[in-house]
């Protein structure tokens, strides 16, 4: 998770965050540990209510992980076995695997080359290329004749997609929309949070997220009480009342320890997100006069939270060389994601597709350190080191 040693700049370092708020975390954990009440209960309900208020979405349900949040959201949105769901290939594996684990089939979508997220145009391109519309108005895949039920929008790197235009497009196609907001807690588009214009949104509280727990955790937000009730049942073995099971469900409960930690951290989230933004703007300023790589693009109505600060190299074959050179200088970087999902072995049986933007991005993106505790001096050193390398790189 972080590099160690004198002179290194870690890509991410959770020990710094704990150094700042460790006593606060321990204070909220002591009474919980004394109570020995670890599964759901008042601590989890309180966190769910806090998240609902923070995000401005009336229903919030805690689950065991971000992946589970996606699976339970898909099933509750109406996904049936064999149904196809539009999803970007340029994303983390769980965005697509959750569709399969919920019984559906991914239908790959390319992304916008500037924002790295789907648009009505990229969604429509995939739909038109791989599907047909029946006389009844239903979309079905040309291959294997699967019904197309919905689309998953992934808000990658903390950058929200334009849910206003996407939700309008989906309504015209007769498709529902769910949102993977696992990297976008606190992000807004047009002042709206994920889940405001869709069936619901899924969040992850993996420790490295902007709001991270002491282990795995997840959340689903929705405006629909019936959908939230279904998820509350699914997370406890398909049961609303003890020992009565209406359907096959899961063991996917957010535990009280995670809820207590996350409640304490939530009070700091806006400050942490603002620090990420400050570091991103400083990077933007430092990199403004060069043309070797592109910096993150933000739409006018977008309020990103910079889960990652990801640059895109314009020349082919440069990214890995740059990463190696920065590593020699003790600067941590990461690649999200080196293999697009449509090329993962787990999905090869779905058939080959061409996604040129996704494939270029997987070969050219590089994420730089941007966590809130990164010092100004460290950030400046990253900028200087990267700019210093440009004179010796192929264009």
Structural overview:
The chain has about 400 residues and is of the alpha/beta class. The protein folds into 2 domains: about 15-265, Aspartate Aminotransferase, domain 2; about 270-390, Aspartate Aminotransferase, domain 1. Helix content is about 40%, strand content about 15%. The protein has 11 helices and 14 strands. The chain has a 7-stranded mixed beta sheet with strand order 1-10-9-7-6-2-3, sandwiched between helices. The longest helix is centred in the last third of the chain and has 32 residues, at about 255-285. The two termini are about 30 Å apart. Mean pLDDT is about 95; it is low at about 1-5.
Blueprint of the fold:
Blueprint: H1 14-35, H2 41-55, E1 59-63, H3 66-77, E2 84-88, H4 93-101, E3 105-109, H5 120-130, E4 131-133, E5 139-141, E6 148-154, H6 163-173, E7 176-180, E8 188-189, E9 200-204, E10 218-222, H7 225-234, H8 256-287, E11 293-294, E12 302-303, E13 309-313, H9 319-328, H10 356-364, E14 365-368, H11 376-389
Parallel strand pairs: 2-3, 2-6, 6-7, 7-9
Antiparallel strand pairs: 1-10, 4-5, 8-12, 9-10, 11-13, 13-14
């Amino acid at each position: 998770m972080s590099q160690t040693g004198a002179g290194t700049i870690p890509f991410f370092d959770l020990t710094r965050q704990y150094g700042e708020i460790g006593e606060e975390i321990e204070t909220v954990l002591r009474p919980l540990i004394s109570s020995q009440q670890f599964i759901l209960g008042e601590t989890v309900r309180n966190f769910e209510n806090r998240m609902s208020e923070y995000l401005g979405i009336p229903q919030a349900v805690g689950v065991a992980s971000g992946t589970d949040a996606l699976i339970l959201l898909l099933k509750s949105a109406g996904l049936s076995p064999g149904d196809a769901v539009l999803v970007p290939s340029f994303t983390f594996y769980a965005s697509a695997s959750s569709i399969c684990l919920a019984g559906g089939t991914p239908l790959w979508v390319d992304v916008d080359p500037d924002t790295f997220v789907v648009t009505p145009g990229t969604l429509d391109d995939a739909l038109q290329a791989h599907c047909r519309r029946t006389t009844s108005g239903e979309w079905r895949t040309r291959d294997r004749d699967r019904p197309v039920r919905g689309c998953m929008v992934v808000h990658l790197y903390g950058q929200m997609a334009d849910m206003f235009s996407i939700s309008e497009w989906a309504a015209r196609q007769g498709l529902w929309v769910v949102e993977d907001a696992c990297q976008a807690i606190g992000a807004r588009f047009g002042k709206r949070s994920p889940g405001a214009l869709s069936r619901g949104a899924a969040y992850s509280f993996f420790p490295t997220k902007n709001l991270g727990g002491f282990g795995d955790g997840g959340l689903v937000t929705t405006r629909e009480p019936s959908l939230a009730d279904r998820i509350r049942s699914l997370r406890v073995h398909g049961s609303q009342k003890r020992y009565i099971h209406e359907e096959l469900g899961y063991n996917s409960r957010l535990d009280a320890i995670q809820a207590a930690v996350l409640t304490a951290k939530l009070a700091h989230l806006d400050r942490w997100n603002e620090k990420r933004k400050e570091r991103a703007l400083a990077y933007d300023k430092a990199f403004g006069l060069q043309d070797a790589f592109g910096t993150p693009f933000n739409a006018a109505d977008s309020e990103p939270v910079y889960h990652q600060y990801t640059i895109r190299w314009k020349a082919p074959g440069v990214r890995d060389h740059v990463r190696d050179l920065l590593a020699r200088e003790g600067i941590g970087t990461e690649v999200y994601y080196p293999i697009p999902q449509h090329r993962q072995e787990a999905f090869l049986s779905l058939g080959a597709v061409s996604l040129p933007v996704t494939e270029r991005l997987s070969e050219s993106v590089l994420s730089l350190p941007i966590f809130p505790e990164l010092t100004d001096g460290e950030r400046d050193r990253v900028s200087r080191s990267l700019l210093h390398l440009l004179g010796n790189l192929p264009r």
